[in-house]
Design a protein that fits this description.
The protein is mainly α. It is built from 19 helices and 2 strands. Helix 6 runs antiparallel to helix 7, helix 9 runs antiparallel to helix 10 and helix 13 packs parallel to helix 16.
Length: 404
């Protein structure tokens, strides 16, 4: 619909008329509609001549679409005076940092008019930022009052140091979350990672499970940092050669965090899955929008999805688009996959499992695997590669299940 309302439609029609693009539109009209496809893949190679990068544009379009949908939900709740729900929809954490960075750099500019932020979207971003700023101010006031009672001079010095540390921590987390890979990031991040891991462990011991999970998820996501370095050009890789020690710290911390993440999920999330399976409430997916799977599913199927894809568990779906993109599958601990497989096999008497061909008797899901009912088809191969090749897991036999 947006294409129809913009001058972009005229340009696209020229490409369609010249058989460069394919569109299911009426050639007698001036409107482009339906789906646009490139006539031949070889044409994609020439987009570099125009300074276009398909992957960057795709990522920007996904982020813009997500922002539009989130804004609309917020507007609906606000207009209905449901202030609690509206506040729950506000941006927080990494997502807020990402959107603020995009707006500051005008990163949607490659989308043309389609990338322009509406007034409602700007209001949504501003209110999210103001809510966080207000919370920080309240926390700072309480902290300042406490420190003043102890020692004003020492307190002020400590507060300033903490604020500087927090500012630097947010910058590093933002850069890592935005997949920025620079020697400066690696050099600054590495010495701080043991402290981040210590904070996550302390939250876990105190029972702050959601906070601990979020910290572990971030640390595990750093597994992709080394891959991003390896994908750089030989010339760019030279800048990282002097940072072998720092890179080793990042890799080791991410691996340790993966173990702790699997432990937390086993202790605090898998029991919920086991309860549903024990009741025989295997569940069903009643929709077709995988980005809203948990809203349109029930039972054990829903819990499995939340453990693998959402912040409730592993949070492999970083883009919140219902897909597991290449690299995101590495965020799922092998131990978690094996434990989920064992639970499904156990309570379905070995009929249903996460993956593989040994599901022909799984009448609960029409003789198919759990993964094919759980994740959008375009992500099946990525997840199955994680299961079979990266984690080296194989389907459990009836005998193995019986010995559990």
């Amino acid at each position: 619909d947006k294409f129809k309302k913009s001058s972009t439609s005229k340009i696209l029609k020229i490409f369609v008329d010249e058989n460069i693009l394919i569109s299911d539109f009426d050639r007698n009209s001036n409107q482009i509609g339906g789906t646009l496809e490139v006539a031949h893949e070889s044409l994609l190679g020439y987009l570099d001549l125009f300074g276009l990068n398909i992957e960057e544009i795709k990522k920007e379009m996904i982020t813009k679409k997500w922002l539009e949908e989130a804004t609309q939900r917020w507007v609906i709740f606000k207009k209905s005076n449901n202030l609690k729900q509206a506040n729950d929809e506000l941006l927080r954490g990494y997502r807020l940092l990402e959107v603020l960075d995009i707006r500051e750099k005008n990163a949607f500019r490659k989308l043309g008019k389609l990338g322009d932020l509406t007034q409602e979207e700007n209001d949504y971003i501003d209110e999210s930022k103001n809510a966080i700023d207000a919370k920080k101010r309240r926390r700072a006031i309480l902290t300042f009052t406490f420190l003043s009672l102890v020692s004003l001079s020492v307190g002020l010095s400590w507060l300033q140091h903490q604020q500087q540390q927090q500012t630097e921590r947010y910058r590093l987390i933002r850069d890592a979350a935005l997949n920025l890979t620079t020697p400066e990031l690696v050099k600054s991040l590495a010495p701080r990672l043991p402290k981040y891991l210590e904070i996550a462990d302390r939250d876990r011991q105190k029972g702050n499970i959601d906070k601990a999970l979020a910290d572990y998820q971030f640390l595990v996501s750093l597994k992709n940092l080394e891959d991003r370095i390896q994908r750089k050009s030989p010339e760019e890789q030279k800048n990282f050669k002097a940072l072998n020690r720092e890179r080793a710290i990042v890799t080791a911390t991410a691996s340790q965090a993966e173990i702790f993440l699997a432990d937390v999920i086993q202790e605090h999330r898998l029991p919920k899955l086991e309860d549903e399976l024990r009741k025989g409430n295997f569940g069903i997916f009643k929709g077709n929008d995988y980005s809203k799977f948990e809203e349109q599913s029930t039972g054990a199927l829903k819990i499995t999805y939340m453990i693998l894809m959402r912040e409730f568990g592993v949070n492999a779906d970083l883009n919140n688009d219902g897909e597991v993109l290449e690299g995101e599958e590495q965020l799922i601990p092998c131990e978690t996959l094996e434990q989920i497989e064992k639970l499904w096999r156990k309570f379905t008497e070995n009929r249903c499992g996460l993956y593989g061909m040994n599901n022909i008797n799984c009448h609960e899901f029409y003789e198919s695997s759990i993964i094919t009912n759980l994740i959008i088809p375009s992500s099946w191969a990525v997840v199955e590669d994680r299961i079979t090749n990266q984690c080296k897991l194989i389907s459990l036999s009836t005998k193995e299940i019986g010995n559990e």
